[in-house]
Amino acid sequence: MDSGEPFIGTEALACGALNRHQLRTRYRSVFPNVYLPNDVELSLALRIAAAWLWSNRKATIVGAAAAALHGSKWIPDGVPVELIHANTRPPRGVLTRRDALADGETQTIDGRVVTTPERTAFDVGRRGAVHSAVARLDALARATGFKVDDVLRVAKCHPRSPGLRRLEAALDLVDPGSQSPRESYLRLLLIDAGLPRPQTQMPVSGVDGMPVAYLDLGWEEHMVAVEYDGDQHRTDRRQYVKDIRRLEMLERMGWIVVRVVAEDRPAAVVHRVRAALAESSVRSGL
Question: Which residue stretches of the chain have pLDDT < 50?
Answer without folding.
Answer: none
